[in-house]
Automatic annotation (TrEMBL):
<dbReference type="InterPro" id="IPR004402">
    <property type="entry name" value="DeoD-type"/>
</dbReference>
<feature type="domain" description="Nucleoside phosphorylase">
    <location>
        <begin position="16"/>
        <end position="229"/>
    </location>
</feature>
<dbReference type="Pfam" id="PF01048">
    <property type="entry name" value="PNP_UDP_1"/>
</dbReference>
<keyword id="KW-0328">Glycosyltransferase</keyword>
<dbReference type="InterPro" id="IPR000845">
    <property type="entry name" value="Nucleoside_phosphorylase_d"/>
</dbReference>
<dbReference type="GO" id="GO:0004731">
    <property type="term" value="F:purine-nucleoside phosphorylase activity"/>
</dbReference>
<protein>
    <recommendedName>
        <fullName>Uridine phosphorylase</fullName>
        <ecNumber>2.4.2.3</ecNumber>
    </recommendedName>
</protein>
<dbReference type="InterPro" id="IPR035994">
    <property type="entry name" value="Nucleoside_phosphorylase_sf"/>
</dbReference>
<keyword id="KW-0808">Transferase</keyword>
Length: 234
């Protein structure tokens, strides 16, 4: 039966879900990948599209911005619709000289300043890590085209993050900052399912001169989409 936030019937959502943040991006991805896509939900204006890619079922929908929003959808997708894997495909801010705007980061793990995973296991500091088979599939799909495989940090706050903390995270090998992966990885672990985040660097905390415009954020994600799709349908 439908959930409070997804109106689709059980069976109308595929085992594999691509989860960008922006509903407009979700609609565009669905149209690009699945000529047969049909909309199975539109609660709160968040379209959910299911179709086939090379004969394999796929659903595309948006998570919204931030871990609480993603958490609602991921829980309902895993618990009610039996989704097996969710792959976030989105944007992130570079925070290390190792990455530049336009690069793709496969998020091996996600540090966070959020409390989303704090109470997951009493007395344990939960490690939010990606599912290895999805990481391997994304990296294999990249071929000889370089891709970064490294930790990111998932923030609750978009603005006002301390520069000294950013530097410390970069010094510990963290390449990018975004707002969803840590919660996605925690929720997937809770349900024994698979999850991955593949992000395009759309702006850089160390050098804003090459930052994407709003339009470029929506258009320059094809490489990340290719890798995310490979992981979702592996």
């Amino acid at each position: 039966m439908p959930t409070p936030h997804i109106a689709a019937e059980v069976g109308e959502i595929a085992p594999a879900v691509l989860l960008p943040g922006d509903p407009r991006r979700a609609e565009r991805i669905a149209a690009q990948l699945m000529p047969d896509a049909r909309q199975v939900s539109d609660v709160r204006g968040n379209g959910v599209y299911t179709g086939q890619v090379d004969g394999r079922p796929l659903t595309v929908m948006a998570s919204g911005m931030g871990m609480p929003s993603l958490g609602i959808y991921a829980n309902e997708l895993f618990a009610t619709y039996g989704v097996e894997r969710i792959v976030r495909v989105g944007t992130a801010g570079g925070m290390s000289p190792q990455v530049k705007v336009g690069d793709v980061v496969v998020a091996l793990g996600a540090h966070t300043d959020s409390a989303m995973n704090d109470r997951r296991i009493a007395g344990i500091r939960f490690s939010a890590v990606a599912s290895y088979p999805l990481v391997a599939a994304a990296v294999a799909a990249a071929g000889d085209d370089p891709v970064h495989v490294a930790p990111v940090v998932s923030r609750d706050h978009f603005y006002g993050n301390p520069p000294e903390q950013i530097q410390a995270l970069a010094d510990h090998g963290t390449l990018a900052v975004e707002m969803e992966a840590a919660a996605l990885y925690g929720i997937a672990a809770q349900y024994g399912r698979q999850a991955l985040a593949v992000c395009t660097i759309s702006d850089h905390l160390l050098d804003s001169s090459q930052d994407f415009s709003a339009a470029q954020r929506e258009e320059n994600f094809q490489r990340a989409l290719q890798l995310a799709l490979a992981a979702a349908l592996d």
